[in-house]
Structures are given as structure tokens and as C-alpha cells.
Write a structure and sequence with these properties.
seven-stranded mixed sheet, S-adenosylmethionine-dependent methyltransferase activity, about 220 residues, single chain, disordered N terminus, alpha/beta
Length: about 220
């Protein structure tokens, strides 16, 4: 690993953990957000400043306008939204590559725990054909070197007319996670396969995101 990469990972840990400066955060040791251990440790110590602890209003408002359809949630964390969908009868799969996150999600979902899987989004083959991929703090959790892979994967999983919709963190962030993305970057990332059909402000942005989230809806072309 290069010295720059080491520095970036250290900066990333500080950027995320600064939102929760308790004694548990001070004792965290893992530095690479591309490793599941980074996220496992934060769930183990309850250092999860990205966790709203409920279903976001913007999500519920968006879903209420759609007919139930298959949904995939990558980087699902505690998966409150998956619980909401499953209770409402939607076909849904929620995945995370952190075993600790998956355990937290399964506890949250109770009788619907089976919709949560331990998996790597970049190689995962869902048992359903998603019509909506829900983005919530996943793109901003992965290093920007993986963003082109993310764009290719969502394009491969969605059919024409399918939706990539959710929360996107706009504006570059020193270090990270969260890794914010400039508007020109995100447009260039998705333009080859998607059309932006909605761009709305977010009212419930957590401090770790600094009020820079937007609800974006991209339609697969």
C-alpha cells in the first residue's frame, strides 16, 4: 500500500469517526473502508453516525408513489428500509459485506430477516430482477476508485426503465468516508446508461453528511 493510500485511509477513518467522538470511536483501529473489517468494527462499537435509526421520509414518500416492484439495497446497514418494504409486501433483497451490519439488519427485520444477505455487491447475483436499486450511503462509503465499477454494476442489474434512486452525497470530501462526489462527476458517471429524471433536496441529512445529500432518481436507458 502506498504512503498516499495509507494517508487517505487514515483521513477517511478520522472523517467518519469525527461525527461520533465518544470513547468507542477513539479506540477504533481499522483504517481501510474497502475492507469489511472497517465496518465490522464500527458496528461492534456502535459508531454508526450514518444510521438515521428510522426509515427516511424521502424514501417513504418515493416508495409510496410506486407500485410494488423488486428492490435491491446494496450496503444496507441496519436495513430499516428493507423492513418497511418487506412489511408492505414488496420483493426486496438487502445486502452488505459487513457481517456485523448483516447481523444488525437481521435483528431489525425479525420475521423478514431472510431478505438480508451477506454479499459483495460487485459480484452478487440477486435472486430477483430489481426494478429499483436503492442508494443510501453506499456510493459515498466506497473509495472513488470503485465508482466506475458501481456505475457498471447498477447498469448491468437494471433493465431499461429501471430506477437507481436514493440519497447521493454531492461535493467532494477530503479524506472520507463519506466520499462526496462532485456534480459533474456523478453526471459523467451515470450519463452513459442513465437519464436523471428527478433531483430533490433532503430534509433529514445527518451531521456526518453535512447537509449535502440530494435525492436523485436515475432511469436506465
Amino acid at each position: 500500500m502506498s504512503e498516499k493510500t495509507k494517508t487517505d485511509h487514515a483521513d477517511g477513518r478520522r472523517a467518519l469517526d469525527s461525527a461520533q467522538t465518544n470513547s468507542a470511536a477513539a479506540n477504533l483501529t481499522t483504517r481501510n473502508p474497502a475492507d469489511a473489517a472497517f465496518w465490522d468494527e464500527r458496528y461492534e462499537h456502535s459508531v454508526t453516525p450514518w444510521d438515521l435509526a428510522k426509515v427516511p421520509d424521502a424514501f417513504a414518500a418515493f416508495a409510496s408513489k410506486l407500485a410494488p416492484c423488486p428492490v435491491l439495497i446494496p450496503g444496507c446497514g441496519s436495513a430499516y428500509e428493507a423492513h418497511w418494504l418487506a412489511q408492505a409486501g414488496w420483493p426486496v433483497r438487502a445486502i452488505d459485506f459487513s457481517a456485523q451490519a448483516v447481523d444488525a439488519a437481521r435483528r431489525q427485520l425479525g420475521e423478514h430477516a431472510g431478505v438480508v444477505e451477506l454479499a459483495d455487491f460487485f459480484t452478487y447475483e440477486p435472486p430477483l430482477a430489481p426494478q429499483w436499486i436503492y442508494e443510501r450511503a453506499f456510493l459515498c462509503a466506497i473509495p472513488n476508485a470503485l465508482w466506475p465499477d458501481y456505475a457498471r454494476r447498477v447498469a448491468a442489474l437494471l433493465p431499461a426503465g429501471g430506477l437507481l434512486a436514493g440519497f447521493f452525497l454531492l461535493g467532494a470530501t477530503p479524506g472520507g468516508p463519506p466520499f462526496g462526489i462532485e456534480r459533474a462527476q456523478i453526471d459523467a458517471l451515470f450519463a452513459p446508461s442513465f437519464e436523471l429524471i428527478d433531483d430533490a433536496p433532503v430534509d433529514e441529512s445527518l451531521p456526518v453528511f453535512g447537509g449535502r445529500e440530494r435525492w436523485l432518481t436515475w432511469r436506465r436507458t
